[in-house]
Amino acid sequence: MKLLEERIRQEGLILSDTVLKVDSFLNHQVDTKLALAIGREFARLFAGEPITKVLTIEASGIQFAMAAGIALDVPFVYAKKKKAVTLTEKLYSAPVHSFTRQETYQVSISQKYLGPGDKVLIVDDFLATGAALVGLVDIVNEAGAELVGVGCVIEKSFQEGRSLLEQKGVRVHSLARIASMSPGEIHFVEDIPL
Ligand code: 5GP
Questions:
Q1: What's the CA gap between 26 and 28, in Å, rounded?
Q2: Which residue owns the Cα nearest ligand 1 atom 15?
Q3: Which residues belong to any copy of the Phosphoribosyltransferase domain (predicted)?
Q4: Residues annotated in the binding site for 5-phospho-alpha-D-ribose 1-diphosphate, as ranges?
Q5: Where residue 192 falls among pLDDT bands split at 50, 70, 90?
């Protein structure tokens, strides 16, 4: 998605060879028009699939899952990272190791909102090591739902996330794929000369 790549080039802060900060339009302040365009792009990429639900993980996947849900005219559900006192029903849970926070936490979804008969599109902001998305894939399988695919806003293609998901037979679409980066320099997958 050229528009997204341009924003990353203009406003992305490359903190190291592995960490990109996009807080001005994606992860802290959110460009609402861009978020809605991202949702429409996911809907276009997975057109023809009878998706019944979009699934993400709190917090930074929520705006893109909502945008995709609007474009597909289906609800979205976000997995919770902390067990609130209000989460009293039976849960699906999976452990996730966070790349940015360097800790392992449990993600949970109420069994009321996902089950056999659902056709699920998983959406998230970043695909890095794939741990978060593998956790969600495991939950979809546990629920007996069907996984249509995974849509990521930004993929760091030099990390193992995509291959981990593809090994599990998951269809992955990312809107911006970073081949490599270092402070002051970024290359997208399409940029690499053949
Ligand atoms: P993963 O499980 O694929 O390693 O990454 C999970 C989450 O870590 C992503 O959903 C995202 O919130 C965060 N993350 C991973 N890498 C980056 C990065 O380079 N920049 C930002 N802003 N978040 C990241």
A1: 6
A2: 128
A3: 48-159
A4: 128-132
A5: low
Helices within 12-123 (DSSP H only): 32-45, 62-72
In the numeric block, which tokens belong to residue 120?
Answer: 């699920």
Judge residue 33's burial from the number of C-beta atoms within 10 Å of its C-beta, 0-12 exposed, 13-18 middle, 19 or more buried: exposed
Within 13 Å of residue 171, how many CA atoms lie on the same side as its CB? Answer: 10
Distance of CA 99 from the midpoint of ligand 1 (Å):
6
Global pTM reads 0.95
Give Cα 19 to chain centroid, integer Å.
16
Token pair in block for residue 48: 């023809």
Whole-number Cα distances in Å, 6 to 9, 32, 129, 151, 165? 5, 16, 24, 19, 27
2-189 belongs to CATH 3.40.50.2020: yes
Whether residue 84 has pLDDT greater than 80:
no
Please work out, in degrees rounded to the nearest 5, the angle formed at the alpha carbon of residue 188 by the alpha carbons of 3 and 137: 85
Instruction: Tell me how far apart the alpha carbons of residues 155 and 94 are, in angstroms, rounded to a whole number.
Output: 22
102's CB contacts (< 8 A; 6+ apart) are none
* 104 class by beta-carbon count within 10 Å (0-12 exposed, 13-18 middle, 19+ buried): exposed
